[in-house]
Amino acid sequence: MKEFDVKKETNNVINFIKDYYKKNNLGGAIIGISGGKDSAVVAALFTKALGSENVIGVTMPCHSNKNDKIDAKLISDYYGFEMVNFDITGVFDGFKDELKNLGDFTKDEVKNSDINLKPRLRMATLYYLAALYSFVKGKTYLVAGTSNKCELYVGYFTKGGDSVHDISPIADFTVDEVIAIGKYLNVPEKVLYKAPNDGLSNQTDEDKLGVKYKDIASFIDDENSVDEKTKTKIKRLHNNNKHKFVIPTYKRNE
Predict the structure, then answer these.
(1) Buried (b) or exposed (e) across 207-237, using 16+ Cβ within 10 A?
(2) Which of 28, 43, 49, 220 has the fewest CB neighbours in a 10 Å radius?
């Protein structure tokens, strides 16, 4: 495996952001700050590229762990960007109340729908705020994506939720590479080395996936570098989630 040049890649991403914003006459970035390493690293990259005055972080609690909000503030305080809180608990609860009109569903029946509803509400919130601040501040704000390469490879994201964004700075970096960038940019260790979780299901990402991120990274580089059981799990996750990447569109025969 080729050695990761963290200084080179970090500078490349920062320049990528700068160039894209300059070319398209853009102004700022809206970033959902979860209190985890991915959103922290993305926030760090954007503050370096655009200046902290052009970055707005958003916390969107929804029956969430209160420590996530504390960790998110740690990031905004460290990098000096504005942080707003938009509590979507009431919106989520209102949605669930409306669902009762369709029937009496069990907890098991709604579990997956509930988990995926939260990132979809957060996506809508980020785009609402991006449009609002674009008007108020007189410059165009984009919604920044925070998914890394390992998550994307196995389809660990919500279609219509965290899959929706305008610019994706860390999608080609594995979890270990994201951590390396975060270390290089001085992301507070409490956040950088925090066990990744979705903030939705009270499970770590790796618990839910049934596979370690380091194994996913190894598989991407060389699928024979992991044992057969792990290889099978990763292949299954990747293949079962291919539908998340492409929308089949019928084309008429002329």
Answers:
(1) eebebebebbbbbbeeeeebeeebbebbeeb
(2) 220
Could you give the CA distance from residue 28 to residue 142 in angstroms, rounded to a whole number?
A: 6
Residue with tokens 């009270």: 202
- Fold category of 6-196 in CATH: Rossmann fold (3.40.50)
